[in-house]
Amino acid sequence: MKKYFVSLLFLAFSLITKAQTIKLISSNETDKWKAEKDLKFTAKNEDQSQIIIYPNKQLQKIDGFGGCFNELGWEALSALSPEIRNSIIHNLFSKEEANFNICRTPIAASDYALSWYSYNDVFEDFTMRNFNIDRDRYILIPYIKSALSVKPNLTLWGSPWSPPAWMKVNNHYTLTSGAVKGGKERGNEMGDSKNIANNATAFKMQHSYLEAYALYFSKYVKAYQKEGVNISSIQVQNEIAYAPQWPSCTWRPEDLAYFIKKYLAPKFKEDDVKSEIWLGTVNYGNPDYVRYFLKDTTISKYIDGVGFQWGGKKAIGTIHKEYPNVKLMQTESECGEGENNWKSAEYTWSLIKHYFNNGANSYLYWNMVLDHAGKSSWGWPQNMLISINKETKNVVYNPEFYLMKHLSHFVVPDAHLLATNGGKDHLAFQNPDGSIVLILANLENDTQTINVEVNGKMMNAVLKPKSFNTLTWKP
């Protein structure tokens, strides 16, 4: 009997010890995604806790992570052999790798399309007789389906950069003439006389155009559905308050609300379109823009969530405090200038912290894959997670890929952000199975030791200089 009792004690001790093992994955500029020595919890001692995690204080639910499908991304991938292309898709979407589960797709041309197009460029075709997604069947949809082959339950949402040009007051896909940022790169052929300010509505607000645009959205969702691609939601306009030299369309809040309330939502109901309607993507820092939609129940009942990017980061915290039950998404991580360096990843980390600490349920990168030059079709070079040299076939996983993976690989849908105290470069989450994920960044040039307290126990994490680190354990 004594021997049996001792065996039980040993088994219990072994189980507790195993449960307290902390796995650590670390990445720095030269040594990425390295499994470090396991850590252990110890009894709390006199050392001061630098970070305290509160597993009993769950904050917002996390929906996931991802990026955007764009034509230039598929063009770069198509330069590779099927084997290498498939390995990239696997590394982005498989549960064993980055595990992306939410992605955006442009509704017709984005600034990373091969060129401008819409699904109906026939002037004043109000009945949408000439609507078609033929171009997408050869470019965007194969890109999306390659991801679906790895992640069949991938959540996909769409947003337009511009309506068909003939629906806009200047009859052009863009709002500002000239080259990007005043440079010599390709801009557009529009003259200055057609410029539209970013505080005006660029859409023709007459009944026939509004009705046709609602039909356009409905046909888009149904056309993709026929191709085996489900669009879970749409955000009605990319960057609502921005007038650049590439496809774009600004909306005053009262005009966009009128379109959603009187045309888009009724059309979706009439056509039995199940896709949610989100307000977004909001790049405007004044929360009054979003308040216009949420404070009026005759409008807010049609709004299933709000997407923020760029300047919208200034508004998300206020909106979350005032409307804590509204779903919020960071829809497009800021893209840099094509540097693809560690400093870019550190800046993106600051954005990730900001958005989650201000109520975001999901965080999306912009271009997952591009040619290594990173230039849009309108000349702006931007960052990407994975760079491809189409001539040499060389593939590079950039620092931001590993940063995203440090979260997306470990934090699964329906996890919760956890309340914490102390420190500034960390985020903590709890997955549905109870496991805890702690992301720690060391932005200093020296090794840092961080004391972390959880439920009265302590651990000491030694962080390499300039590193991102993910610690995981099951209480």
Explain what you see.
With 475 residues, this protein is α/β, with parallel strands linked by helices. It has two domains: 95 residues, Immunoglobulin-like (Sandwich); 350 residues, Glycosidases (TIM Barrel, Alpha-Beta Barrel), CATH 3.20.20.80. The protein contains twelve helices and 22 strands. The strands form three sheets. Strands 1, 2, 3, 4, 5, 17, 18, 19, 20, 21 and 22 form an eleven-stranded mixed β-sheet that branches. Strand 11, helix 10 and strand 12 form a beta-alpha-beta unit. It is globular and about 75 Å long. The N terminus is likely disordered.
In short:
This protein is of the alpha/beta class and 475 residues long. It has helices spanning 2-19, 71-78, 82-93, 134-138, 140-150, 207-226, 253-270, 288-294, 297-300, 313-322, 342-357, 399-408, and strands at 21-28, 34-35, 39-40, 42-43, 51-62, 64-68, 102-106, 155-159, 233-235, 276-282, 306-309, 328-332, 362-367, 369-371, 386-388, 395-397, 415-421, 426-430, 436-442, 448-454, 457-463, 467-473. It starts with a helix and ends with a strand.
